[in-house]
């Protein structure tokens, strides 16, 4: 679940307790052919450790091919700014951030937190 250029986020290891049946609509939406998922996070980040394992499980349940899931590990500088692969190009300030692309164009973005899980938030964005 990572591309060689960027590395791997351990926090994306799927949560084995995540119940795909409870999120069937989100899983179906995330399984759409051609969607590419770019995930910025840090294994050191509390929000990432809390949220990304469930998102990893959702992507697994949606059977998203590994070549369409790109991990972008981020480090935090002393001033709080983030550094890492494509951080500047995608204007990443908070993590976790997940960008969903279709045909090279951004179609949805999750940034740091929401009242619902990453999978549900992105599925809602993709359906709207």
From TrEMBL:
<dbReference type="InterPro" id="IPR036249">
    <property type="entry name" value="Thioredoxin-like_sf"/>
</dbReference>
<protein>
    <submittedName>
        <fullName>Thioredoxin</fullName>
    </submittedName>
</protein>
<dbReference type="InterPro" id="IPR013766">
    <property type="entry name" value="Thioredoxin_domain"/>
</dbReference>
<feature type="compositionally biased region" description="Basic and acidic residues">
    <location>
        <begin position="66"/>
        <end position="81"/>
    </location>
</feature>
<feature type="domain" description="Thioredoxin">
    <location>
        <begin position="1"/>
        <end position="128"/>
    </location>
</feature>
<feature type="region of interest" description="Disordered">
    <location>
        <begin position="66"/>
        <end position="87"/>
    </location>
</feature>
């Amino acid at each position: 679940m990572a591309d060689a250029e960027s590395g791997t986020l351990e926090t994306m290891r799927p949560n084995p307790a995540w119940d795909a049946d409870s999120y069937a609509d989100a899983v179906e939406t995330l399984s759409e052919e051609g969607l590419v998922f770019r995930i910025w996070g840090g294994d050191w980040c509390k929000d990432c450790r809390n949220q990304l394992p469930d998102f990893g499980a959702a992507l697994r349940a949606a059977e998203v091919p590994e070549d369409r899931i790109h991990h972008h590990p981020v480090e935090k500088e002393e001033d709080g700014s983030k550094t890492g692969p494509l951080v500047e190009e995608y204007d990443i300030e908070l993590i976790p951030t997940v960008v969903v692309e279709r045909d090279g164009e951004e179609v949805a973005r999750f940034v740091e937190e929401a009242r619902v899980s990453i999978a549900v938030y992105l599925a809602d964005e993709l359906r709207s």
